[in-house]
Each structure stands twice: as structure tokens, then as C-alpha cells.
Amino acid sequence: MGLILAAFHNTAWALPSVHIQPEGNVTLVTLPTYFEVRWPDQGFQPGEIDPVNLMGFLVRIRPTNEGYTYIFGDGVTEQTDSGGGTYPDGDITHAYPKGGRYNSRIDITYGGEFSVNGGE
Q: In Å, what is the CA distance from 55 to each residue of 3, 9, 10, 59, 74?
């Protein structure tokens, strides 16, 4: 288990970015701003498998997503299992009550699963 745990910690996790609409990091006060997680091609994102050979055994490590925390930068946060989306169907929106500069981000909590030699 120690080797599997070490391999899990050495998995190259995907580092997603936040996509915001309207485009250009500018939004209108009191109107919805749409937030979405964008996954890069590099690294392993939830559901993808990182195969590792440990002492002759094939260990398959699969990251899972345990949830997202959207930090909107104005003191409001939202915890959910949704990756959000774009206008008009995105389900993660936030309306800023007043003008200003806000540093928003999405924190992602990873989990993981593994199998040895094709087992569950």
C-alpha cells in the first residue's frame, strides 16, 4: 500500500483553469457572471487512468473529483460537484453587487481510486 500511495502522490494531476463569461475579465454589476472549469490536455483529470508498474504489478490510478469550491472574490463562495458552464446553460453563476476588482478562483478537491492487475 505504501508504494501505491507514493505512486498516487506522484501522479501528474491536471491543473485546470477557470473560464469566466462575459469574456475579458469584465462583467456587469448585478448581472450573472458564468464560471466554468477548463481541463488542460496535460496531466490526469478525473476519470482518466495513470498506469504504473510497481514491482511487476500493473497499478491503475484514477483521479476522482470530490467537489469544487468557487471563490468569487467578494466574500461569497459556493461548494458543489458541478464544473459549471458557459452562457446560457451554465449552472454556476454569480452576480457582483457592486463594481470593483475581484480575484476569483475554483478550488478542486481530488480523490482517487486504484486497481492492481485489472482488479476492481
A: 9, 17, 16, 10, 50
Query: pLDDT, tens digit, for every residue of 53-90?
Result: 999 999 999 999 999 999 999 999 999 999 999 999 99
- Amino acid identity for residue 116 in this structure: V
pTM for this entry? 0.84
β-partners of residue 108 are 68
Helix (H) or strand (E) holding 105: strand 105-116
Q: In this structure, are strands 77-80 and 17-21 parallel, antiparallel, or unpaired?
A: unpaired
Q: How far is CA 36 from CA 12, 32, 54, 81, 88, in A?
A: 22, 13, 36, 12, 12
